[in-house]
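Write out this protein's structure.
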Amino acid sequence: QVQLAESGGDSVQSGGSLRLSCAASGNPAESYCMAWFRQAPGKERERVAAVDDDGSSVYADSVRGRFTVSRDRNNNLYLQMDSLQPEDTAIYYCAADFCGLARRGDYHYWGQGTQVTVST
């Protein structure tokens, strides 16, 4: 069983930066794909960034060029967020699963979320 725990959420002003972390425990497989999602009030959950088991990454159009996703050898996941805007305000979740499932958008392991609030 894989456990994921996010941290790093905070309140910042527009243009600021935050770095989110997702600590993975329970020995996630090296072939896991991992991703960051976010959900704002009244909106559907959105995949922000994903990183494959080979380290390749993809981003939502809304964050490309401002956010950077990375993972370390222990399958901890990070999200560096720069030039934050009020529309980035949301609860950010870390997710993971075997890549065969994750590439179809099917993630079974989720963290509890961390709140990011960006004010003008």
